[in-house]
Amino acid sequence: MTKTAEKMRNHIRQNLWLYLFTGITAFLMLCSIIWVYHVKVLNAPKVYSDGFGYYLYLPAVIHGDFSFSFIEGWEHPFDLMEVDGGKIDKYPVGVAIMESPFFFLAHVVCLLRDALTGSMTATGYSNLYQYMVLFGGVLYWIAGTILLYKLLERYLGFSGKASLLACMVITYGTNLFHYASYDACFSHVYSYFLFNLFLFYLCWYESRETEGKNRLFHTCVFGLLAGLIFMCRNTNIVFVVTYVFYGVRSWDTLQKRLAVILRPTRAVPIVLTGIVTLLPQLLYWHAATGRWFVYSYGSNEPFYWLAPQIGNFLFSVRKGLFFWSPVLLLAIVGIFISYKRRRQLYVGLVVFLVLIVYISSAWWSWYYGGSFGQRVAVDFMCLFAVFMASVFDRLETMKNQGNGRWKLFMGLVYGYCGICIVWNIWCMMAYWYRILPSDGSDWKTIRNIIGML
C-alpha cells in the first residue's frame, strides 16, 4: 500500500463518524427536496419569495437584462424597489454569486438538451435550474458542517465526540435542516457556510506564521470573505467582530489585538480586498440608479433602533428563536460554562451575539416574513455550536474526573437534546404540510401540531 493510500485510509478512519453523519444527512436532505417538490408537491416553485430576489441576477446575466423585464410570464411575480435614482432589486448579489456554479452547470446542460431535442428549457428558471440551486444548498451545508467540525476539534480543542454532537444537534434540533433543503434558495445556508469558513480560516491564520507574499495573500482572504458575507446579508457584516476580538481575554489583550490588526500591512489589504469584492454590488447599484451606495430596502423597511423587539425575537410563539428552537438554550448555558477558559473566539462570539440579536430585532419585520422559526439565526449557527460543544465537553470532563453526578447530568442533557430534536422534526413536517403556517403562529397552532400525533 502506498503512503498516499495509507494516509487516505487513516484520514477516513479518523473522520468516519463525521462523514457518515454528513453523508446520511445530505441523503435525507436530497430525499426531502424530491419529496416536497416532486412527489407530494407541497410547495411550488422551488425558487420563490426572497429566494427569487436573490437568484434573479443569474438569469439576468444570460438574458443581458438587469431591468429584469424577461420575467414577464414566469410563474413568480416580482416587484422592483423604488429608490432615489431608479428601481432596483433590493436583494444583494452575494447569494447569486454563491449559487452561480450550480446555475451555470444547469445552463450548460439545458443548452445541450435544447440543441439536441429542440426544446426551450434554457430560460434561466426551468426545473433543472431550480433543482440545482437546492442541491447546491445541500453541498454548502456539507462543506460548512465539515469546516465547523474541524474548527471545534482542531482549533478550539473539543473532542471529536463533543464536536460531532454539536454539529448534529444544530442540524436536527433547529431549522438548519429546513434551510439547507426545502428553503435552500434563501440566503441562510450560504451565510452558514461563509461564517464557518471565516472562523475556520481565522483560527488557521492566527495559529501559524505566514511570511512575505503568502502572508499578504492570506490577509486578503479576510477582505474577500467579509465582502461575501456582506453581500449575502448586509447586516451580517458585524460578524467581523470575531476577527477584531480574536484571542481577547482582557483589556490588555484587547489593546494588543488592536495594535496587531490596525497595522497597515494587515488593515490596508483587507479593506482594499473587501472593496474589490463589493464591486459587483456597487456596479449594479450604479448602473441602476447612478449612485454607488444605496439603501436598497427603501424608507418603508426601516430599523427601529430605539424600540427593538428583543423579547419577541427570542421568545414569542410567533417566531421566537428559543421558542421554536429550544435546544439552543443549551448554548446559553455553554456561554457561562466556558467563561473562565474564554477560548480565542469567546469574546468575539459573545459580542457578535449581542449585536446581531439587537440589530435583527430592531428590523421593522422582526419576524422576517414567512419562515420556519427565526430563520436569520441559521446564519450564525456556528456560534451556538461552539457553546454547545462546551457543554458536551464539560460532561466528558466530569466523566473523566470520576464526578459521581456525570450520569445524571449527561442523562438530562442528552434527554433534553433528544426531545428537542424530535419536536423540531415534527414541527418541520408540520410546516411542510402547512399545519404550521409561515407566519402568525399562536397557541392554537401548537395544539394543531400536537394533534398530528
Percentage of β-strand residues = under 5%
Order of helices and strands: HHHHEEHHHHHHHHHHHHHHHHH
Largest sheet: 2 strands, antiparallel
Secondary-structure-based class equals mainly alpha
Which regions are unreliable across 5 or more consecutive residues at pLDDT < 50? none
Shape: globular
How many beta-strand runs? 2
Helix amount, in percent? Answer: 55-70%
Quickly count the helices: 21
- Distance between the amino and carboxyl termini: 54 Å
Q: How would you state the average pLDDT, rounded?
A: 93
**How are the strands of the biggest sheet laid out side by side?**
1-2
> What Rg is obtained from the alpha carbons, in whole angstroms?
23 Å
Mind sketching the topology for me?
Blueprint: H1 3-14, H2 16-39, H3 49-55, H4 57-63, E1 81-83, E2 86-88, H5 94-117, H6 127-155, H7 160-172, H8 176-179, H9 188-206, H10 212-232, H11 241-244, H12 251-261, H13 264-277, H14 279-289, H15 310-315, H16 321-324, H17 329-337, H18 346-362, H19 381-400, H20 406-432, H21 443-450
Antiparallel strand pairs: 1-2
Helix pairs in contact: 2-6, 5-6, 6-7, 6-9, 7-19, 9-10, 10-13, 17-19, 19-20
